[in-house]
Design goal:
The protein has one domain (2-60). The strands form 2 sheets. Strands 1-6-3-4 form a 4-stranded antiparallel sheet, with no helix packed on it. It has a 3-stranded antiparallel sheet with strand order 5-2-7, with no helix packed on it. A hairpin with a 5-residue loop joins strand 3 (15-20) and strand 4 (26-31). By secondary structure, it is mainly beta. It has strands at residues 2-4, 7-11, 15-20, 26-31, 36-39, 42-48, 56-60.
Length: 66
Protein backbone atom coordinates (compact mmCIF):
# COMPACT_ATOMS: atom_id res chain seq x y z
CA UNK A 1 0.00 0.00 0.00
CA UNK A 2 1.08 3.54 -0.70
CA UNK A 3 -0.63 6.93 -0.76
CA UNK A 4 -0.93 9.97 -3.03
CA UNK A 5 -2.26 13.48 -2.52
CA UNK A 6 -4.79 14.70 -5.10
CA UNK A 7 -3.24 13.76 -8.46
CA UNK A 8 -3.52 13.39 -12.20
CA UNK A 9 -2.38 10.25 -14.02
CA UNK A 10 -1.64 10.40 -17.74
CA UNK A 11 -1.54 6.96 -19.38
CA UNK A 12 1.20 6.28 -21.92
CA UNK A 13 0.02 2.75 -22.73
CA UNK A 14 -3.24 0.82 -22.82
CA UNK A 15 -3.48 -1.25 -19.67
CA UNK A 16 -5.67 -3.22 -17.31
CA UNK A 17 -4.97 -2.39 -13.67
CA UNK A 18 -6.33 -3.61 -10.35
CA UNK A 19 -6.57 -1.25 -7.38
CA UNK A 20 -6.80 -2.61 -3.82
CA UNK A 21 -7.84 -0.31 -0.96
CA UNK A 22 -7.11 -0.60 2.79
CA UNK A 23 -10.64 -1.91 3.48
CA UNK A 24 -10.01 -4.86 1.11
CA UNK A 25 -12.19 -3.50 -1.70
CA UNK A 26 -10.78 -3.99 -5.21
CA UNK A 27 -11.48 -2.30 -8.52
CA UNK A 28 -10.25 -3.17 -12.02
CA UNK A 29 -9.94 -0.55 -14.75
CA UNK A 30 -9.06 -0.73 -18.42
CA UNK A 31 -7.23 2.46 -19.39
CA UNK A 32 -6.31 3.84 -22.81
CA UNK A 33 -3.05 5.48 -23.85
CA UNK A 34 -3.37 9.24 -24.21
CA UNK A 35 -6.02 9.69 -21.52
CA UNK A 36 -5.75 11.42 -18.18
CA UNK A 37 -7.47 10.48 -14.93
CA UNK A 38 -8.04 12.63 -11.82
CA UNK A 39 -7.79 10.99 -8.38
CA UNK A 40 -8.52 12.49 -5.00
CA UNK A 41 -6.03 11.80 -2.21
CA UNK A 42 -5.93 8.02 -1.82
CA UNK A 43 -4.19 5.06 -0.17
CA UNK A 44 -4.07 1.97 -2.38
CA UNK A 45 -2.05 -0.77 -4.05
CA UNK A 46 -1.87 -1.02 -7.85
CA UNK A 47 -1.30 -4.22 -9.81
CA UNK A 48 -0.91 -4.60 -13.56
CA UNK A 49 -3.30 -7.44 -14.47
CA UNK A 50 -3.06 -6.92 -18.23
CA UNK A 51 -0.99 -8.65 -20.88
CA UNK A 52 1.35 -5.72 -21.61
CA UNK A 53 3.58 -3.33 -19.68
CA UNK A 54 1.84 -0.38 -18.03
CA UNK A 55 3.38 3.09 -18.27
CA UNK A 56 2.04 6.41 -17.10
CA UNK A 57 2.99 9.77 -15.67
CA UNK A 58 1.69 10.49 -12.16
CA UNK A 59 1.48 14.19 -11.30
CA UNK A 60 0.98 14.89 -7.59
CA UNK A 61 -0.42 18.31 -6.66
CA UNK A 62 1.33 20.04 -3.79
CA UNK A 63 0.00 22.78 -1.54
CA UNK A 64 1.18 26.29 -2.36
CA UNK A 65 3.91 27.69 -0.13
CA UNK A 66 3.18 30.85 1.80
Amino acid sequence: MHSHPASIVYYLTDAKVKYTYPDGRTEERAVKAGTAFWIEAVRHDVENVGANEFHGVHIELKEATK
